[in-house]
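Worked example (supplementary).
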Amino acid sequence: MVHLTINDTPVTAHPGETILEAASRNGILIPTLCHMEGRHKVGACRICVVEVQGMKNLMASCVTPATDGMVVRTSTPRVRKARKILYELMLSDHPADCLHCDRNGRCEFQRLGETLQIRESRFEGRRSRDFVDDSSPSIVRDTAKCILCRRCVTVCSEIQGVGALSPQNRGFATEIGPGGSLRLGTAVCTNCGQCTVVCPVNALHEADSTEAVWKALSDPRKVVVVQTAPAVRVALGEEFDLPTGTLVTGKMVTALRQLGFDQVFDTNFTADLTILEEGYELLGRIVSLLRSKGLVDDRQLETLGLPTHMAAHLPDPVLPMITSCSPGWIKYVEHFHGTRLGHLSTCKSPHMMLGALAKSWFAGKAGIDPKSLFVVSVMPCTAKKYEITRPEMEQEGLRDVDAVLTTRELARMIREAGIDFARLPDSAFDSPMGLSTGAADVFGVTGGVMEAALRTVYEVITGRTLPFASLHVAPIVGLEQVKTASIVLENVLPQWSFLEGLEVRIAVTSGLDGASRLMDGIADGTSPYHFIEVMGCPGGCISGGGQPRSPDPDFRQKRLEAMYREDEGKPLRKSHDNPDIQALYAEWLGEPGGHRSHHYLHTTYTTRVRR
Amino acid sequence: MMEMSMELRCDQAGAPESEQDRYALLRQVISQYEAKESNLIQILHMGQAIFGCLPEDVQRFIGQEMDLPLPRVAGVVSFYSYFSTQPKGRHTIQVCLGTACYVRGGKKVMEALRDHLGIDVGETTADRRFSLEVKRCIGACGLAPAVAIDDVVYKRVDPNRLADILGRHA
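After joint prediction of all chains, the assembly is encoded as:
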């Protein structure tokens, strides 16, 4: 233990801890701006400076280790004066348009001004940048707002392993961006939006879709359909000061109706559908592989009860199969592992499936002209804004989904409409795309898609329920970067006898850096897995790029727990038990992997430039 | 091969003519430096020697060969004034703006050159004849204001008589 004195109080620090960390553990707050808990220690902004006895200069407490006998003062006149000067210097190169800025009231720079009690702005000078990069369908980069903290650089390079943002030029001309003639829309950017979550100001934010949605809502010729992803309901409440991890499913549905949406559907419905499509795709690939090795003959193939179309056209035997729900992850693979696109499941992501079904099956059923339908997806994700622009995401000349709102954007619309969210009564999703099982709920957290798929696939092969307490595959539950497990298939149904004793190996990862390591294993032939789940953001969609920015260090864990609570509270826990999914197959789709499924629910991928 | 690339100088002497050969040579340079990120600046020096400058395509090639994001390569290239993304002209004009030249009218010389050539500092004329640069003291304070074109230094330059000087460098 290290013993030091901070503000005349003796405190202890763990070896290696910084002054800032030791102070904060002992209840002494030092203001920071560029600092990012545990991740980012660059000392770029100097706001956290403190006086250390015996040192001539003020020290940045976020990068100075606490040492034995150190005497620190965090709020002397000299320190307060220095912080004010630093703040005012940053302010002199920052547009003072707070009153009409997206981040008004939710800006870390603004809040810091209050903390530091800034009462004047003494420095007038030239502004260094004023370029707005709106080339990306997902993320807008407003260089004038940037305070050069470099949090986005850390999250993009070190946590996501992408590197779309880097400091360019030097001195006064420094800017954070892709460099050269590149814009976010042309750079190797996955649109994951993690940069928009960590940006303390409005320099990086989601491309606005609220205007387009308000316009559709006020257009009497439009039937406006909305759907919400599983991760939205575990985080939206935070925007209305409800405790982190509060489930607000019912209030959210009520709010959407009050906003004027004509149909409120649940992306969870198509998450269940995804499990059926993707589960059978996995089975198809395994059978296809065994057949190519001569281990399954024609007679056996007939007895399996595989969907007829699939049995006739077995998928390519490419394993491991990898999930395809996360559009940031998809673009990452297309850039960095463009020769391995065959490993990706061909399933569209659940909200794209719902959009495609809304404009085909639902429109027909409800007697609505599909051209008058406007489909809005509320997503925890910025990459979904890009995903809907992909050329393959349309049928019969109609886009599957017309607009994507992030969780944060929906919260803004609810506030703007004057809806008292916290006091709203609960209501339920609309039929026919509102009912879902618990398996769909966990889609929003790392490990969830895998668990949901196993709940169904295991049962198809063995005729028995997945043998885990409360159906949770314990080794793949949690926030670790890479999780692995294996399940031995025993006492399988007679027609699946060729799978008896097979050890099914699975891996789950969230965040693109971990995913990259699993892909390297596939490239060098050492990957032992049959099935891999990847979510592009660390922790999965619960901490997606479109989610509320949380000051709670345990926000991921709390949102995760809320998600499993929602799952466990459902009477149905397995996707194949969803009666409305069964009805959809009986009435219209036919069978998983059938003709209509392929037309509306599956997609293709494109190799893109690496670096 | 090692010796050849080590001997390369920054004036492109010894660089191959064809684009294809230049990329091949650059690839060898990168592999000599083991594609290590810590060697990026050295590799960029060599790249500039081979290509004369570091346009985006060359930066992208270096990024791909070294498995580095292009934005990081571009960040280093744009940080150091030594690196240029534009091809240099046949002649480089260096206007001295050190203290002595500055007070004796270097700024006016610079303005006249900008007007005359129609380019800004760091740029090259469309006919690739001249590139314009600023120097902070070339050690010829007694001759202020001084201008160097390639390795010829002109003393007490009169902003009204620049055409005469430029005419000596075809």
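Two points are worth noting when inspecting this output. The radius of gyration of chain A is 26 Å. Chain A has four domains: 2-91, 128-206, 210-268+350-423, 289-347+437-601.
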